[in-house]
Predict the 3D structure of the following.
Amino acid sequence: MADQGLSIGQVAQRTGLSVHTLRLYERAGLLAGEVQRDVSGRRVYSAWDVEWLTNCVKFRTSGMPLATISRLAQLVREGNGNEAERLDLLREHQRRITEQLAQLRDCLDLIDLKVASYEQHLAAGVSGDPWQQPQPAPEERRHRVG
Amino acid sequence: MADQGLSIGQVAQRTGLSVHTLRLYERAGLLAGEVQRDVSGRRVYSAWDVEWLTNCVKFRTSGMPLATISRLAQLVREGNGNEAERLDLLREHQRRITEQLAQLRDCLDLIDLKVASYEQHLAAGVSGDPWQQPQPAPEERRHRVG
DNA sequence: CTAGGTGCTAGACCGAGGTCTAGGTCAAAC
DNA sequence: GTTTGACCTAGACCTCGGTCTAGCACCTAG
C-alpha cells in the first residue's frame, strides 16, 4: 500500500492515537484539510494529513487545547491571508511552552534536591528526615507520628 | 498576624490556589501533617503547611497527579522508615519531568521553525503558504460525503 | 454462504481536577 | 441588634480529553 491513502487504523498506528481519538479530532475540527473518503465512506488519509496529525500530537503533548488546534486548523483551511493570525497563535503557544519549560525546570530543581537529600539520608543511615514537618512539642508526643 | 497560623484565605493568596482547591486538596489527602483548627473549627495553617503546599503546587504544575502527591504525603505523614519509597516516587517523577522537558523542547523546535517560517513569509510578502496542504489536482475532486 | 476484521455514526460514559452552591457558624463593624 | 465577610461541610456541577458501545456496512478468506 503506497504512502498515498492510509486507513484510519494505519494512521492510528503511526500517530500513536487511537482510531476513536482520530475520529474525535476530526469532529473537533483539528484537521486542516478534509479527510477524503473512499467509495464506501471510509476515511482515506493523505501523507499530508498524517504529517499534520503528527504536529497535532506535538501540540497536544505541549498542552495546546483542542480548541486552539482547531482554530489553527481552521486558519490553515481558510488558506492564504490569515498568516498573521496563525503567527500570533503560534507565538502565544511558543510563549506558553517557554513558560512551562521554566516551571518544569524549577520543579525539577526541587525534585533533584529532594532526591539528593534522600539518597544521602539513606546512604548515611537515619540522620533526620529530610522532609518532615517540625514535630509540635517534644513533651506531648505520645507516639512518633514519624 | 505572625507567620505562624494562617487562615485558609491567606494561604490561598500565597499559594495561588483557591480556597475551594485548598479544601479539596486536604480532602484528597495531599497534606502531610494534619491542618490545625482554631476553637471554632477554622483551619489554621502553619508555615510548614504552606511550604508543603507550595511544593504541591509545583508537583501539580509538573503534572504529578493528585493521587501521587497524596501517596507521598501519606509516606511523609507515616514518618521515618519509608524513605526508600519516597525516593522511588520522587525519582519516578524526576524521570517524567525529564521526559516532558524533552518533549516540550521537541515541540518548541517545531513551533520555532514555523514561527520563523511565518515571519519570513509575512516579511517577504506572499511566497507560498508555509503550512498549506498541497492542493489536489484541480481537475477531478471526487466529493463523496455521507 | 458465513465469519472475522475493519470501518462507519451517534452518543453514552469516564476520570481528573476544579469550581460552585446551599445552608449554616462565628466575630467584628456599624 | 443586624449586617458583613470569612469560614465551615456536603455534595452537585462543569470542562476537558478521551474511551467505549450499539448497531450497521463492507470486504475478503475459508
